[in-house]
């Protein structure tokens, strides 16, 4: 008899109903931070809200829907996994793990961080799935459906079930067999799909959200339609100036993020950005912000006023002893010296960037980094400083960077705008400073 669909997934990583689970008691602390702590239940709620429309979220939702459907359908048909079938499955699993040189089952579970109870539940669900598929396909008593057959059967059975409306979209993610799946359940399923680094980033975002919300409540700063509208307007402006995405309709851009305007308004990260901006802006009234700007006008105009449209060509190189970068620093510099001599004579800067830059994000856009101020963080400080020292429409000498060497070109210069726009930039700058300070104060202590 062939190994089950579950075992195929465990050993070979194919998409399946059975995802590994890292069980955690809902009330247990997921992480602590400077202003408090967050339980797994609260963390899963946050993850569910963040990933409700993401590819990971849709994948996790699909697995939850399938699991609930399989259990309910098996109950309706009176299908169960007998003790003999379970014992046979465990024997097959142990043999297959040893063949794959994965060691004993208990060792493999410990290595993968899967507790025995979670493994048994997921395995039993997959065995139920095999029995349901075998029954509907008329397979013999000793035949086991392939993973592909099981996936096709499930896809057909659950095609539209998750699209059923729920009573409260802010709390529930889908309706299946008359039962509503909570956003927290979805978050828990997503958590099982993510590695530790991704979870750390989500924990940081959740701690920032909790800290901002706590401070906003303390100071009586509300997050209502005007604040959300203002954050949407800032997103539109950023999109219009993005070196890669300018020209893309805003609705299409949101769609690529898995959002529309309505869903974005309830996205935790979007709301936190809007709330943080509102918090900083509330520190002064309009006259106070004007006074703040005018008191340091020279400094602000120099740091935030003039903007430069900058492109670059990065050539990665490393000092001796770095096994991850084959090209050495002198080689990287020599390559750019040669390339610089060809620019303007044989090819344009944009063509050179497309053909030769090692910076993947900007390469296909002719090396464009977008509009920078002297305080921009889109590029490292050495690059920004060099860009503001460079004459417009000229190409720099090879510039040392943290990744090797780079050529820079200033494509355009925009002088300081009017007072109203400068005050907006000053507020945005103070918001970025406040977020950086908040991250420094978080003191995140994960328990996962």
Show the helix and strand layout.
Blueprint: H1 5-12, E1 29-33, E2 36-39, H2 40-50, H3 55-77, H4 83-99, H5 105-112, H6 116-137, H7 147-157, E3 172-176, E4 179-182, H8 183-191, H9 196-219, H10 225-241, H11 250-256, H12 261-264, H13 268-281, H14 286-295, H15 297-305, E5 307-316, H16 329-342, H17 349-356, H18 360-363, E6 368-372, H19 381-389, E7 399-401, E8 404-414, H20 419-441, E9 445-446
Antiparallel strand pairs: 1-2, 1-9, 3-4, 5-6, 5-8, 7-8
Helix pairs in contact: 2-8, 3-6, 3-8, 9-13, 10-13, 13-20, 15-20
Q: Overview of this structure, please?
A:
The protein has 448 residues and is an alpha+beta fold. It has three domains: 5-164 and 181-194, no CATH class; 197-299 and 419-446, no CATH class; 307-414, Chitinase A, domain 3, CATH 3.10.50.40. It contains 20 helices and nine strands. It has helices spanning 5-12, 40-50, 55-77, 83-99, 105-112, 116-137, 147-157, 183-191, 196-219, 225-241, 250-256, 261-264, 268-281, 286-295, 297-305, 329-342, 349-356, 360-363, 381-389, 419-441, and strands spanning 29-33, 36-39, 172-176, 179-182, 307-316, 368-372, 399-401, 404-414, 445-446. A four-stranded antiparallel beta sheet has the order 6-5-8-7, with helices on both faces. Helix 2 packs across helix 8 (183-191) and helix 9 (196-219) runs parallel beside helix 13 (268-281). The longest helix is centred in the middle third of the chain and has 24 residues, at 196-219. The radius of gyration is 28 Å and the shape is globular. The two termini are 38 Å apart. The model is unreliable at 1-22 (pLDDT under 50).
